Amino acid sequence: MTNRAAWMTSLMMVVGTLASVPATAADAAATAVAATTPRRIIVSIADRRLVVVENNEVLAAFTVAVGAAASPSPVGTFTVINRVTNPTYYKPGTVIRPGPSNPLGTRWIGLSQKGYGIHGTDAPSSIGYAKSHGCIRLRNADVERLFEQVRAGDRVELHAERAPEIAQFFANVQ
């Protein structure tokens, strides 16, 4: 439990720092567009899959890492609050600048659930498993693709199980 508490404290410092990053004009404009074009990011934690859905059409699908049993991913509906290119990772006594050893990878997509986001990784072998500290991880190339498709204000749904209402989006996804 101590390790989880330390990790969450560290992550909250990262998120607190990232939340203070001013939104760009592009994010502000994208938020306005998001209000008129419903876009959803749906994560099936059980399947370790993420889909981007617009107008009930799957635009993209990715395999992800989700929270480990000791540090599960939150379940619920959230929104994208910020997007950061080449984030810096902070934890007490450690700062990891952008680069190949950064645990956040090349992109951070912050969620309205404090301390959680969708991000890249320096451990691509974790993708497809319950290995994270609660965040949703993607391979760096995948998170870079996702980053271009999401906007501040987009809805993010994290589902513990593949419920019937979301099954349609995962039925034909490889």
Summarize the structure.
With 174 residues, the chain is α/β, with parallel strands linked by helices. It has helices at residues 2-19, 25-36, 140-149, 164-170, and strands at residues 39-44, 49-54, 57-63, 66-67, 76-85, 89-91, 94-96, 107-111, 117-119, 130-132, 136-137, 155-159. The protein has a single domain (2-170), classed as L,D-transpeptidase catalytic domain-like (Beta Barrel).
- Spatial strand sequence of the major β-sheet: 3-2-1-12-5-8-9-11
Largest sheet: 8 strands, mixed
**What percentage of amino acids are in beta strands?**
25-35%
CATH homologous superfamily classification: L,D-transpeptidase catalytic domain-like
Named at the architecture level, the CATH assignment is Beta Barrel
Helix/strand-derived class? alpha/beta
Q: If helices are DSSP runs of H or I spanning 4 or more residues, what is the number of helices? A: 4
Low-pLDDT stretches: 1-10, 12-22
Number of strands: 12
Spatial extent as radius of gyration = 15 Å
CATH class term? Mainly Beta
Tally of individual domains = 1
User: What shape does the CA trace take?
Assistant: globular
Task: List SSEs in N-to-C order.
Answer: HHEEEEEEEEEEEHEH
Stated plainly, the CATH topology is called L,D-transpeptidase catalytic domain-like
Mean pLDDT: 84
Helix content: 25-40%
**C-alpha end-to-end distance:** 36 Å
